[in-house]
């Protein structure tokens, strides 16, 4: 095991790798239920909703886990890197808006037509499959790695910091530390309002526990306590159930139906001729041009989400080569593309490398053994679906926020005295959390870099690849709302 995963060579040990794998899994376990919720839109899961939504939810639930297992196992055994994969957030909502919502709208005020909803779902899977095949071609030929290496140095350094802000923002949002405000858009958790309300302090308990968990991690790290993140997750979980007065429970009654729906409408979707016809000629999607733009969009988002995550987490783990690129980058890209193809065949949206992998890296994960542990945990969830929901968001949020702290240090290496580096790097940094998208941040930074270098006479031949990337993002921003 040590020789296969190069555990000693990378300065780690089996115990650390297992702890890191558990840390990553609990940080991203929310995707098990969140992904099917996003794809069918949670609002449609009301008790009186059309049963077809529950069918799709069940199918996507199983497909999401299978895609995560396949992708993460590839990362573990092929790429041998401590990165986990699962269905991308944002892309799942985009899937709903692009393929399922049009069918709902087409029903008007009348009853939901279940067959049409399923057909829209299947057409979407075809688009995901095609984009996955494009990913695979790019990966196997090395083009994706070349695209990654073509990024300007300022963006390579800004991406990890931007991802740090992004995942910290996710952590803050997940537990209500940052709340919505109609005037300022966001605000700090309203502790005073909670105290004076009828419900009392219990309404902000998750936020307070998450802040406590973050401080615990910081203190334990200062004293160099191994497994500080996992200790915090376990401690906050126990406190949550004690203070909230709730008890964890398992409901195994729906497991059989979940697998049944997966077999009926999940894994069979992309093999339907009607699904292919709808994907490229259907009125709901908008014809061949719209289908191509959807494929390009899913390609761009997945490619740059993965590139961003790889650079960010590899930099944090000190696993970059002499050129500042992640080691085994080709294998990581290939694993990602195969996972997307597998996910489409199983019945779910685009699979991508997860930013929450950084939580495991922060816990000491340096090898594929970390990913193997994550994959095993996902397999357990396949048969024990309530398991993933046992750990509350307030327990995993501190891990995400702490990782944000660690990843920000890379931005200090950006040359802020050179405006051609400073502005693109800054835009990449802030646009990731503000637009809720890693790829948007990279795209906006790339566009700014090209325009500034062109107008200041700093443009060079080596900037041609980043110019192509910027042009693709311009097309995406013009033709696709996301």
TrEMBL record:
Q: Does the keyword Methyltransferase apply?
A: no
Membrane topology category: Multi-pass membrane protein
Q: Which domain of life is it from?
A: Bacteria
Q: What is its main location?
A: membrane
UniProt keyword annotations, A-Z: Membrane, Transmembrane, Transmembrane helix, Transport
Mark the transmembrane ranges: 12-33, 56-79, 91-114, 120-140, 161-180, 200-220, 227-243, 285-304, 372-405, 425-452, 464-481
Q: Which family does it belong to?
A: Belongs to the nucleobase:cation symporter-2 (NCS2) (TC 2.A.40) family. Azg-like subfamily.
Which protein are we looking at?
NCS2 family permease
**What is the species of this protein?**
Anaeromassilibacillus senegalensis
Upper taxonomic classification of the species? Bacteria, Bacillati, Bacillota, Clostridia, Eubacteriales
